[in-house]
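Researcher: Please predict.
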Amino acid sequence: EVQLVESGGGLVQAGESLKLSCAASGFTFADYAIGWFRQAPGKEREWVSCMNSDGSIIYADSVKGRFTISSDSAKNTVYLKMNSLKPEDTGDYSCAADLPYKPGSYYCPAVDFEYDYWGQGTQVTVSS
């Protein structure tokens, strides 16, 4: 059974940093595409970033230069380091996996309907 568990959310002030974790299990971590999404109250879910096992990494324009996605294969974990946080970054952050992933495709989905498995989310609140 594929499971994704997020952690690392919290309440911070504008300009501060947080690092979110997405611990994955139930699939071969050698072949994957994992994305991060966020949803603010009253708003639609927004794609934030994606990385895959081919090494492709992409970011939404709203977070480019401030957020960094990375992975630790020994821990089966994908991270989202968020720097220079702004109040508009507030939301429930979820990770999602696009499985099965085709090695060599270099494809990283930027829309939620292409992801098959989702974590429960972790709340990030940025105060001004």
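Model: DSSP finds no helices and eleven strands in the chain.
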